[in-house]
């Protein structure tokens, strides 16, 4: 029996870039690199640019992805990857990250 995707369970997730794709020119200008030994094969839908490596990606809940992309929350790698709120909206939201969203 084939398993069907559970939209209620998995549809809430999105992949996002850690270093923003919109800043690819900055990436190139400052010659950021990813260890070639660790680079996964790029998606057939993405360019071969290292900014699209899975090492520059993270799986987000859709709502957290929005807050991350709009610079309302960040992840601090120097503090055990602590999630940090940069706005009041994000500060109120952070406690919900440890539990799944409620379904209607």
TrEMBL record:
InterPro entries per record: HNH_nuc
Matching Pfam families: HNH_2
Residue ranges occupied by any HNH nuclease domain in the UniProt entry: 12-76
Protein name in UniProt: HNH nuclease domain-containing protein
Source species of the chain: Tuber borchii (White truffle)
Lineage start: Eukaryota, Fungi, Dikarya, Ascomycota, Pezizomycotina
